[in-house]
Amino acid sequence: QAKALAGKGDNEGALRALRAILETNPTDRRAPSALYDMSQLYRLRHESEEAIRCAQRILDQYPDSYETRSGLASYRVATYKVHDTQEYNGAIAAAQAALAKPDFQIARSLRRSLVTVIAHAYNGLGNGTEAEKWLTEQLPTCPYLLSYNYYYNTIVEAKILGNDFDGALAHARAGYATC
Fold first, then answer.
1. What is the 3-state secondary structure (H, E, C) of the chain?
2. 17 FRET partner, CA 20 to 30 A, in 74, 100, 130, 134?
3. Other C-beta atoms within 10 Å of 30: how many?
4. What is the pLDDT of residue 28?
5. Whole-angstrom Cα distance, residue 53 to residue 69?
6. Which pLDDT does position 83 carry in this prediction?
7. What b/e string do you get for 81-90 counting C-beta neighbours within 10 Å, with b at 16 or more?
């Protein structure tokens, strides 16, 4: 019902339906999924703090859920903190917690996104050198980063922060040619 309401643009109705699941039976197997959907709806409404709270609640209250085991909830916390609230250290911690999970639990595309979120957070802290170092260290275990445009955007940003404009231009060209 919540997805149908959200599909019609009734985000408030969708949030009410999702809250009802949590209030009626917080141990329901759908509760983590409801919180995950709520986090996305809150973000659409530009309520970043509430979006982060919902995703964090999944991690805290439902550690065995798919959303926690797969790294999805940690990814939401990390990306919202980087892009919406500029809580860079919190984003790094959330993403690193997800990356600490066994490889088989985290999809390749999510692993790639988590790696670049950490680098982006380092850039946000003004530490382009650490961002570049982090990305370089991840390439042996995450070579598919090289086919991901956000990798190039993040490394270009790191190069600019380090005043390496030639390096930034070279990576921008490589990214354009690759992606």
1. CHHHHHHCCCHHHHHHHHHHHHHHCCCCCCHHHHHHHHHHHHHHCCCHHHHHHHHHHHHHHCCCCHHHHCCHHHHHHHHHHHHHHCCHHHHHHHHHHHHCCCHHHCCHHHHHHHHHHHHHHHHHCCCHHHHHHHHHHHCCCCHHHHHCHHHHHHHHHHHHHCCCHHHHHHHHHHHHHHC
2. 74
3. 13
4. 87
5. 18
6. 84
7. bbebeebbeb
